[in-house]
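Subject: Leucine rich repeat protein

B.,
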Amino acid sequence: MEIGNLKNLEILTLYRNRISVLPKHFLSLQNLKILYLSQNKFRKFPEEILQLQNLEWLDFNENRLKELPERLGQLQNLNILYLLGNELKVLPSSFSELQSLKSLNLNYNRFQVFPKELISLKNLEILELTGNQLIFLPEEIGTLDKLRVLFLEGNQLKQIPSGIEKLQNLESLYLQENQLTTLPEEIGFLQNLKELDLQGSNSFSEKEKERIQKLLPKCEIYFK
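Prediction pasted inline below.
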C-alpha cells in the first residue's frame, strides 16, 4: 500500500531511516497530527510539511538543517516542535506566528543570540535552549509568562536579566554549565520555582550561595 492512500493517518513515524526527502504522495496525508522525522539526513526543511494544517506535533531532531522556511508560521495548530541537534543559527520571522506552540526544543544548535521571535510565543510552557552559544538573555524573556520549564544549560551566560521575575509560573530553571557568578535579586520573586540547577562551570562564592538560598527558601537549589 502506498503511503498516499492512508488519508486518515494521524501519526507517522519515520525516524532513523536515513531519508533526505519525504515519500511520494506525502501531501495526501492531510489528517496527520503527529510526525516523527528525527535522526534522518534532511538538509532542507520539506516544503510539503507546510501544507499539513492539522499538524500538532513535529519531531525534527538530529537532522542537518541550517535554516527553516519563512512560511513555517503557517502551521497554526503546532503545539510541540522538536529541533534538537540541527545547525540553526537564526529563526525565520514567521516563527513568531506559531501561537499554539507550548513546547519548543532548540537544544544543541548554534544560536549565539536569543532569537527575538521567541518573545512573541505567549503560550509557550517549555523552552529548551541547552548547548547553544548564548551570551545573554533579553529582559523581554519575562513576557513568556506561561513558561513552566526553562533549559539554558551549557551556554555562555554571565548574567540573568532582571525581567526574569515576571516568569511567575516558572517551576524549573536549568542554568548549569554557564559563566554565572551571581543572580539578580529579582530571582526571589519566582514564588513557584521548585528547582534551580546552577551546577558545573558557574562560579558562586559561599556568600552568594547563601544569598540565593535566602531568596528562594522553598526551592531545591543545586550548586557544585
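Helices lie at 206-215.

T.
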